[in-house]
Amino acid sequence: MSRIVSWHADPSRPRFVPPAGAVDAHCHVFGPMAQFPFSAKAKYLPEDAGPDMLFALRDRLGFSRNVIVQASCHGTDNSATLDAIAKSDGRARGVAVVDPAISDAELENLHQGGIRGVRFNFLKRLVDDAPKDKFLEVARRIQGLGWHVVVYFEADILEELRSFLDAIPTLIVVDHMGRPDVTQGPDGPDMRVFRALLDSRDDIWTKVTCPDRLDGSGPPWDAFAQAVRPLVEDYPDRVLWGTDWPHPNMQDAISDDGALVDMIPRIAPTPELQHRLLVDNPARLYWHD
Ligand SMILES: O=C(O)c1cc(C(=O)O)oc(=O)c1
After folding, report:
1. Which ranges carry the Amidohydrolase-related domain (predicted)?
2. What residues does 152 pair with on adjacent strands?
3. Residue 5 lies in a domain
């Protein structure tokens, strides 16, 4: 496998100025590989994209804090994520991916290192297996830590995941809205099924992220804006936003992070919605203690 670059070398400065305290609540770090080797099971092998690069981007885009989500290429070894959090001067927290056999002491160590959630990934192109029964055991064990579960799945398996999701005892955050086909519009079948999930419990949140992944029409991603804005307006207290930098697997159409930031006022059109999306909501999940 050759190493790939999936991020923009020189992103534009966004026109939109985020409110003070804004959080990029979905981003990753890759390596550096010499210090934090990628998993033997990784499905892609990126170039290094470490904490210095992430924090430089944070500052360039006008954000204050990051939530670093363990990327699948690092498997269940969270060292690179923990290292980035440790270097952030308290300005980053994280979401881990764990081996279900993890000990309570190791979970506690992750908590001390700034982890506040675990991620369950159901994308076959990213992981070899997703054992629901073991995931549920992990979900029960993290309850005492006050963590939540982050799930990543595609729209076509949402119906079959419903009983699993219903059984999760913690708050749930769905990555990238479960990848709906946004070209179907705000009332299309994918969004309807996703809204039914949100309506089933008031502790299911989502990340209104990744126009570059979900809107094949390309920048300025009008279909994404039209489909996602009603979601932000209808569930203003349950949405998070993030860049998704360094955009794993997006090497064929590199996204400009400045353009991604300029999507924010299109999906969260008022200062109040922007403040909840970028400041209040992530603070409630990641900086409550
Ligand atoms: O769609 C993807 O390829 C992707 C991959 C990862 C990861 O490798 O962890 O994370 C994401 O948020 C999205």
Report:
1. 23-286
2. 121
3. no
Question: CA–CA distance from 286 to each of 67, 96, 107, 114 (Å)?
Answer: 8, 13, 16, 9
Task: Grade residue 209 by pLDDT with cuts at 50, 70 and 90.
Answer: very high
Q: Which residues are catalytic?
A: 244
Best mutation site among 72, 208, 209 for ligand 1 pocket (most ligand atoms within 8 Å of CB): 72
pTM: 0.98
Q: Is the ipTM of this complex over 0.85?
A: yes
DSSP state of 277: I
* CA 249 to ligand 1 center in whole angstroms: 7
| pLDDT tens digits along 217-243 | 888 999 999 999 999 999 999 999 999
CATH code at position 190 = 3.20.20.140
Enclosing domain of residue 50: 23-286
Give the distance (Å) from ligand 1 centre to CA of residue 251: 12
Distance in angstroms (rounded) separating the CA atoms of residues 214 and 228: 11
CB atoms inside a 10 Å sphere around CB 217: 12
SS3 content of the chain, % helix, strand, coil (to 5): 40, 15, 45
Closest residue CA from atom 5 of ligand 1: 248
pLDDT tens, residue by residue, 40-60: 999 999 999 999 999 999 999
The CB of 248 under 6 Å from ligand 1? The reply is yes
Q: Which atom of ligand 1 is nearest to the CA of 179?
A: 1
Strands (E), the chain: 23-27, 65-69, 92-96, 115-121, 148-152, 172-174, 204-207, 239-240
Question: In angstroms, rounded to a whole number, what is the distance separating the alpha carbons of residues 153 and 131?
Answer: 14
Q: Is 71 in the pocket of ligand 1 (CB under 6 A)?
A: yes
- Count up the domains in the chain and report the number: 1
